[in-house]
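Problem 3 from the worked examples.
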Amino acid sequence: MQEIKTFYSHSIKDTESIANVISSKLTSNVCIYITGDMGSGKTSLSKFIASNLNINDFNSATYSKVSISKGLRNLVHCDFHHINPNSTFIETEILPNLVTPWIFIVEWPQVIYDIDCRQLIHIKLEYIGKFSRKITFSCFKQS
């Protein structure tokens, strides 16, 4: 089943509210791929989703490539800006950390990684003004 929703954010508070809606739709064992231009709010959206999972120690993985946090679900977060990880990286650095129930969030995904998940979600952030964003949520798979 495919579900597509479009949201509009005109403030950080709007983005937080949108993250609340998105988080309410998450099951466990979910891959979330977030795309958008530099500074469009990918990390902020990731932090809000993490907060909704009772994860308050969320750190961006920009420099470490992978960060792991524990809350209502185990969160594995990657920021692949300027990085295209190979299958060995996914097999050794990601898969062992996907402990059920998990959420895998990737900012700047270069490809859709071959990971068995219950939901595959793509979130696209687009500038529509200096402080405004169009956020498109697409859920491609649910089981």
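Problem 4, a separate protein:
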Amino acid sequence: MNRWTRRSLLFGGALIALPVIGYYGGKLFCRGNLLLRTQKGDVSLLTSVYPDVAAARGLGKKYLGMTGTTATAALKRLQGQNLVASAVESACMADVAVAVEYACRSDFKEGRIHCIDGWILAQTELDVAALCTI
């Protein structure tokens, strides 16, 4: 194809623009949509990462019993992580989920892991589960 047609230029421009529009559109949706914002505070926003709160509560109880720590200490550890704290301040569930996932990955890289019932879990993941016990 030696010549660029109007149709091929429009199609190519649309292919380049769609991911950019999707990314920034999602950011605007997250900031502007009142359904995604919560008034219950930091704890409920963080515990919304787990779809099954009862299972997370059981995991949190096992973790707290195994390590001898408290749920308030887990909350302080989570608030001490800059990425998680800024995601909670934005009050966007999508940002919180991404921040918790990133924190869990860094926990695995740095060796902050615990083994509970044969499962190897990240410290951040267990701290969020401990918040479900409150």
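Solution to problem 4. The chain has two domains: 1-32, 37-131. Confidence is low (pLDDT under 50) at residues 33-40.
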